[in-house]
Amino acid sequence: MNSSMHSKPPRYSKLLPCLSIQASWQRLVDLFTDAGIDCARQEASIVLQHVTRQTPTDFFANLQRTLLPAENSQVEAIVSRRLLREPLQYILNSAHFYGREFYVDSRVLIPRPETELLIELVREILPVLPQRAAGPTFADVGTGSGSVAVTLACEIAGARILAIDSSKAALQVARINAARHSVGDRVHLLQDDLLTAVGARYSVIVANLPYVPTKDIQGLSPEVSCFEPHHALDGGADGLDAITRLCSQAAQVLDTNGWLLLEVGEGQADGVLQLLSQQHMWEPLRSVPDLRGVSRVVAGRMVGSHR
After folding, report:
1. What are the pLDDT digits (tens) for 243-295?
2. Among candidate residues 49, 82, 115, the one where a domain is terminated
3. pTM score
4. Which residues pair with 202 in a beta bridge?
5. Is cis: bond before 284, omega within 30 of 0?
6. Collapsing DSSP states into helix, strand and coil, what is residue 88?
7. Contact, 285 vs 261, CB < 8 A?
8. Domain containing 272: what range?
9. Strands 100-102 and 95-97: what pairing?
10. Which of these three, 82, 108, 129, is where a domain ends?
């Protein structure tokens, strides 16, 4: 982490006591905007909803309520950290993914909306998965917070998920989330370097691995480059180190007619498609765009074997 980000905190006047929620909201919007924080209005409302423990509906119905002194102190503490560009999700230990709330802290990446595409694609291919009497099985490689693994367990009745990460600390967070959503009996955690220790076979492999080229990390927003774990971002010189290794291992773990779904970075899909096409075992093989039109997931069904 870049210590210079913390040496000179941004200057701002503390919130005045006895402000209404509406006045506090506007003040936070101004502070966040001046600090160059995106979505300042949304983040300011999230802070105040969190501190006042209100739903969005209650929040907007009570804008004239005065903040209590204890609430005001909480707001000040949150704002002081956010102005240092620490992600709000880490400050509040809360991130949303596919309509559910997940615990997050600096041990794991913050779940991104584009990763929800993995869940959508699993739902799409579910009818054509290899049939298993006990239900479909998934290997979630690079599980991090467990957002994908837990969501699959919640969305697909009877599904069993192996959630793999090289980081013991990340798996501790994934365990919290599996318990929070009552799927700990169907989400099994494994510390492993990709698939090297996996002996069973699975219906689907989903993976959101590090894919940022090393040289690009420092150019990302301060929230990412200074606070999120670099080992979960750094994909090597071209961003494809871990993805390339996983592609070479996948056939050893998938059922015949099982699927591989890989999240990739912008501009990487063609290279990954070419890598998989050279194995002559994936059909169909395609890339799927996210809501911004970026080819975000490479998907293929294993119909042959190179063994």
Report:
1. 999 999 999 999 999 999 999 999 999 999 999 999 999 999 999 999 999 99
2. 82
3. 0.91
4. 254
5. yes
6. helix
7. no
8. 95-302
9. antiparallel
10. 82
